[in-house]
């Protein structure tokens, strides 16, 4: 476009270039006008000088008297360059004739044809003999005459030259004017052409737009036609099928006709033709009916479609409403869950944050004599009864030792019945509270049976640990629907003779490890260095670990119990819950402890290593009692550090936890005094009020 415009611009610019030339040419014209009289002037001057020798003479005479400047003027007028005064005042361009001519040369270098500087710039040469004329004596009139004639002829020559030049300039000016005119015409033609081109471009653009719109319309029409074609193709194929079936009917009819023909029932061709014509009419009717059916089917389909569309819009609206209601319900559910947690906690607090359950084992050997005790599960009481000789030794006295706990389970109670009473506590662990459950009792009283069960994976007899794990994973799965995500880490250790052993490390490759109970920071939970903390994500994974721990647990033959656990085993499940949508999180530790059997040294008749084991066990159990006493009496100092067991469990035995103690009782008569001791210990623990637990929530 710029390229197209550039010549136009040139054309626009040309006149400005031409202006000076135009001005110059007009000057030349004027010049011509000015010049025209010039030869005449000169001629007249010449003539006057020719005609007035007498006057010249007078002037020559007065020359001597005039001042020097006047003399100069006179001499100038002699050579004929001085114009007549009136002409000077009106036309100051006798001299400008030369100046303008000189300017013409300077101003029009491109117009070589206009250059005629010789005549314009060269001053008229003084005719030869002028100098001689001044030397001529006054009387030499003939000589002077001849000088004058020479001068006149020279001037005439000059006039001729000037005329020629003037004519040439005029021609040049005419040519330039014509050129200018043609350029102007060209310019205006180009402008017209430009505007034509522009209007054409605009019209092309409009055409392109119209065509593209038409194209779009055609495309849509094409699509519509394509769809219609597809519909028609389908209809066509349906009609073809119909035709085929009708054809079959016709062929059947024809063959029937043939049969009839054979039977001579139809004698003439006319009758045959009529029959065929009937068939044709039938066919047409059938076709018409089919067509009508198809049309009504189409109408029905269209109605169905619009109904479906309306239904779909309605469904969409319902989905929107349901989504909104779902969000509201989720909110309510979350609020409900938080309320449930609060109520659950209140309930447990009302029951007491440290609770004691008593469980009496059934008699293992029916031949053994059972000690006398009365159990009232409703009253949550157990009364040990013993007939003893009176102090004076005359008559036997009946001694009753009543104990009241949070629950008393008689021997026939199943594992499930026991667990149903602790499941609330397990739920608390998921809600962010530290929970600790431990079994206390003499050797063989059923602690391990209660906590683990005879076989970890035995359905009905599964102990509290696998059941708690099962409940936790099931509850975590349900809470996932409310946006809770849980992470679990399991650890299993035993404290044997005040030494920690990792039960999740196979005993076959014993490796001496230093296990130290530590709190990494004042706000961190208590952990054991070098102990295996294994992330678990399912109940099955945990059961495998419990089984491994069971195998690894130290067992030793004692006189009281064939397979007696001589160590405290501590299973811990660390629970971290997060509800990212609600920006809530909680963490807690579920500790399930199977304590080593308590027994009196004298009765067990242990010696050597067994005696050492027993002393260690009893020391730690005594310390456990001391911790509870300190907690019950709200002492500022609680002696957690006295033994590894209490030091390890300090987070689960303090104010910020929920504690459950099983006191297991052996029913045999010979276990009476041990049972009494255990019940007394448990009774003391039951008296403890360890304050209000707070959830570890953020
Ligand atoms: N409630 C019960 N029902 C049936 N059998 C039981 C019950 N409680 C315990 N037993 C059985 O009693 C025996 C001893 O139980 P268990 O080993 O659990 O005692 P313990 O207190 O753990 O002994 P230790 O302190 O020596 O480890 C086991 O054979 C166990 O199966």
TrEMBL record:
Organism from which the protein derives: Huso huso (Beluga)
Family: Belongs to the TRAFAC class myosin-kinesin ATPase superfamily. Kinesin family.
Signal peptide positions (record): none
Assigned keywords, A-Z: ATP-binding, Coiled coil, Cytoplasm, Cytoskeleton, Microtubule, Motor protein, Nucleotide-binding
ATP-binding recorded as keyword: yes
Boundaries of every Kinesin motor domain copy: 353-688
Coiled-coil ranges per UniProt: 145-235
SMART domains, alphabetized: KISc
InterPro entries given in the database record: Kinesin-like_fam, Kinesin_motor_dom, Kinesin_motor_dom_sf, P-loop_NTPase
Regions of compositional bias (Basic and acidic residues) in chain numbering: 1-17, 57-67
Region (Disordered): 1-142
Binding-site list for ATP: 441-448
Gene3D superfamilies: 1.10.287.1490, Kinesin motor domain (3.40.850.10)
Protein name in the entry: Carboxy-terminal kinesin 2-like isoform X5
Compartment(s) where it occurs, according to its Swiss-Prot or TrEMBL record: Cytoplasm, Cytoskeleton
